[in-house]
Design brief:
Helix content of chain B: 55-70%
CATH topology of chain B: Cytochrome C Oxidase, Chain A
Largest sheet of chain B: none
Shape of chain A: elongated
CATH architecture of chain B: Up-down Bundle
Helix content of chain A: over 70%
Structural class of chain A: mainly alpha
Oligomer: heterodimer
Radius of gyration of chain A: 20 Å
Largest sheet of chain A: none
Number of strands of chain A: 0
Number of domains of chain A: 1
Number of helices of chain B: 17
Shape of chain B: globular
Number of domains of chain B: 1
CATH topology of chain A: Four Helix Bundle (Hemerythrin (Met), subunit A)
Distance between the termini of chain A: 61 Å
CATH superfamily of chain B: Cytochrome c oxidase-like, subunit I domain
Distance between the termini of chain B: 6 Å
Strand content of chain A: under 5%
Order of helices and strands of chain A: HHHHHHH
CATH class of chain B: Mainly Alpha
Order of helices and strands of chain B: HHHHHHHHHHHHHHHHH
Radius of gyration of chain B: 23 Å
Strand content of chain B: under 5%
CATH architecture of chain A: Up-down Bundle
Number of helices of chain A: 7
CATH class of chain A: Mainly Alpha
């Protein structure tokens, strides 16, 4: 009972209603996020139509190994996140804690792998500018998108790691009740970040390898 | 229903009002009470309103002579950019939603607070932080791209502090999105028992429609600003034609937000007009359901008209045709609203109080702004008047004539509820009339010089336009007086105004059933709604509501 009263905040009459509202609010936020990435995807589509050859040539330079590895890592983190949210729902404190921790850790693994990939990209002169490696029209634009899109995704993921990590620590210290709506909200956000990666994977890594 | 609240007046108040609950600065800065947050917003956007106003006053003085009197080209560009950025993102966009929306939404639907009270406070801090960033931009020298940040000017050629300005607007966007999410969730989840969707006051509907636009359009602006910063700061080519980039693409992304932004400004104003008209005509709003549908369709169609900003920018003629058509279509729901407001007054029992005067001014100016918008929506006329003062006059009729008039209407209508005090009605009448007069004198001449070909954003112009510019500047002076007047008499009323009572206008709506100013938790008991909104006819004919 105390768990419930600790989790319940003004102005909500009941915890069930509050949970519903938090999920609703996060969904509204996700709609906003979709439009945010939508602007980027629109711009990408326009330029890919303008410079199909440049985009193919440029996309061949991406590191397919890191792309695939990170996709696997992020999908696994989605699983642990989903289990964490369900475990919290079912009142399983230990399982929630471990799954949250695993989710955060997998997020960190993703970022580390991304860091190695960025290093390789820089060494391969794939940063737009005077020393840029490729000469096809549009290749530089593709790589501008690569850096912006993966950068924005990494920022989103970092925010996710901070959220998930904070929740895990608070749970460990019993500073936050298990009954609250926060785990479901965090899971929704985490899945969005994953889905954005699922869209980025073909746009950045597979486009150049289809032909 | 209203009498219940009136009966309670003579008794000792059981709860302190939200204003007296805690007197420390911290009790304000750390509050999660939607009413206090609304007051914080009022104070901050008023400050920005006067900063933006100051900038344009200097611009108007400069335009008194055709040869440029005291400003360099660069200074002139920076001043009108400052005016645009501050007025659009730090006054007009947040104006009615963050103040009256915040204060009234929970009261109107019978809730204790917003769905996410802490997020609400965070929104205000984000807004203030963004505002400070904007001021920082000004202090380090300003920015000269105009409020539209067009590329490649903003990414390569502009000398000003584009990145700082873009960051300020970007952060203010977070505040907008958070506020929008809060409003939408509150409307869905916290309505009092019996408060069905078809019983919501039109102001709530207007805030709901506005929030949808905020949540879905603002992120696209955020992305377009981010791409500009990436290009200017990190050198990543996105829009640069030298690398094969397309500057027109930026305009598409920018206007995908910035055209709906006009509806973020005008929809809440429409909500205010509906509330005030019904109250002072003592009639149910004519065509209540049609009003809801027209607001929602304005919000939806508003997303599909952005291309009319690019008729002469090299967009395909077929796209022009479609965008022109859709821009005409969006005028239909707007016209429905104007006709319904007029029909609400018809056979009403009208009391001409200050809020109604402001609303009348809103309807007149909005109609003129809307009709001239149709001129601009038709491609041949737009080609002639594009980027002239005709456009400037048009959107000022909507944004200033429309939104600012409605903002003042709302301020005068809900002032007794917010502060518990009445202001001197005669002074408010003078204020409303001065504002209308000042507005007409300022902006009507701009239609003429615009049609005759005076381009916007230049401080040196052919001598033939000077008389009109002088009239316009005189009008701006009158407007300045009209904006300062309420500042004085409203501040005066805080201390010396007579006590308003709970429902000075005998208005319907839950916000009038609680005390003035309302207690922290808004209502002693959660209200139960048993009647349609705007239950006025029954009151006048039979004496009482329920």
């Amino acid at each position: 009972m105390s768990e419930v009263s600790r989790a319940l905040h003004e102005p909500w009459p009941s915890l069930a209603r509050q949970k519903e509202a938090v999920s609703f609010g996060v969904w509204a936020f996700l709609a906003s996020e979709v439009l945010f990435f939508g602007g980027l995807f629109l711009a990408y589509t326009v330029y890919r139509n303008l410079y199909p050859h440049g985009f193919v040539a440029a996309a061949r330079e991406t590191e397919i190994f890191f792309g695939t590895f990170n996709t696997g890592v992020l999908m696994t983190s989605s699983l642990t996140m989903a289990v964490a949210a369900r475990a919290a729902e079912g009142g399983m404190r230990r399982l929630t804690f471990w799954c949250l921790s695993a989710t955060g850790a997998l997020g960190v693994v993703f970022l580390i792998a991304k860091g190695f990939e960025y290093h390789d990209d820089i060494v391969n002169r794939l940063v737009p500018g005077p020393n840029f490696k490729l000469h096809e029209q549009g290749a530089e634009i593709f790589w501008a998108f690569y850096w912006i899109a993966t950068g924005i995704h990494a920022i989103h993921l970092t925010v996710g790691i901070v959220i998930v990590g904070t929740f895990a620590v608070m749970l460990r210290r019993r500073a936050a009740p298990l009954a609250g709506p926060r785990y479901e909200g965090a899971a929704l956000y985490w899945h969005l970040v994953d889905i954005m990666w699922i869209i980025l994977l073909p746009l950045l890594y597979l486009v150049g390898r289809a032909t | 229903m209203t009498d219940i609240a009136l009966d309670r007046l003579p008794q000792a108040e059981p709860h302190p009002s939200y204003l007296t609950e805690g007197h420390t600065v911290a009790s304000w800065l750390l509050t999660t009470d939607h009413k206090r947050i609304a007051v914080l917003y009022v104070l901050s956007i008023t400050a920005f309103f006067f900063i933006g106003g100051l900038a344009i006053s200097v611009v108007r003085l400069e335009l008194l002579t055709p040869h440029g009197a005291f400003l360099t080209d660069e200074e002139y560009n920076r001043l009108f950019t400052l005016h645009g950025i501050v007025m659009v993102w730090f006054f007009l966009i947040p104006s009615i939603p963050t103040t009256f929306g915040n204060f009234l939404l929970p009261l109107m639907i019978g809730a204790k607070d917003m769905a996410f009270p802490r997020l609400n406070l965070i929104s205000w801090y984000l807004f203030v932080f963004a505002g400070l960033m904007a001021l920082y931009t000004v202090i380090i020298g300003g920015v000269d791209t105009g409020w539209t940040f067009y590329t490649p000017l903003s990414t390569f050629y502009a000398n000003g502090n584009v990145i700082a300005a873009a960051a300020a607007v970007f952060i203010s966007g977070f505040s907008s999105i958070a506020t929008g999410i809060n409003f939408i969730t509150t409307t869905h989840m916290l309505r009092a028992p019996g408060m069905h969707w078809t019983r919501l006051p039109l102001f709530v509907w207007s805030i709901y429609a506005t929030s949808l636009v905020m949540v879905l359009a603002t992120p696209v602006l955020a992305m377009s600003l981010l791409l500009i910063v990436a290009e200017r700061w990190l050198g990543l080519p996105i829009f640069n034609p030298a690398n094969g980039g397309d500057p027109l693409l930026f305009q598409h992304l920018f206007w995908f937000y910035s055209h709906p932004a006009v509806y973020i400004m005008i929809l809440p104003a429409m909500g205010v007009a509906s509330e005030v008209l019904a109250c002072f005509a003592r009639r149910r709003v004519f065509g209540y359901t049609a009003m809801i549908f027209s607001m929602m369709s304005i919000a939806v169609i508003g997303f599909l008209v952005w291309g009319h900003h690019m008729f002469v920018a090299g967009q395909s003629p077929y796209a022009n045709l479609v965008f022109s058509f859709l821009s005409f279509i969006v005028a239909v729901p707007s016209a429905i609203k104007v006709f319904n407001w007029t029909a609400t007054l018809y056979r009403g029992s009208i009391t001409l109080k200050a809020p109604l005067l402001y609303v009348m001014s809103f309807i007149g100016l909005f109609t003129m702004g809307g009709l001239t918008g149709l001129f601009l929506a038709s491609v041949p006329i737009d080609i002639h008047v594009h980027a002239t003062y005709f456009v400037v006059a048009h959107f000022h009729f909507i944004m200033v004539g429309g939104t600012v008039s409605a903002f003042f209407a709302a301020l005068h209508f809900w002032w007794p509820k917010i502060t518990g005090r009445m202001y001197p009605d005669a002074w408010a009448h003078y204020g409303a009339m001065t504002m209308f007069l000042g507005f007409i004198v300022t902006f009507l001449p701009q239609f003429i010089i615009g049609y005759e070909g005076m381009p916007r954003r230049y401080h040196v112009y052919p001598e033939q336009f000077q008389p009109y510019n002088v009239i316009s500047t005189v009008g701006a002076l009158i407007l300045a007086v009209a904006y300062l007047l309420p500042l004085f008499y409203l501040t005066w009323s805080l201390k010396y105004g007579k006590l308003a009572g709970n429902n000075p206008w005998q208005a319907t709506g839950l916000e009038w059933q609680t005390t003035s100013p309302p207690p922290k938790e808004n209502f002693e008991h959660t209200p139960v709604v048993t009647e349609e909104p705007y239950f006025y006819e029954y009151e006048t004919h039979e004496g009482k509501g329920s």
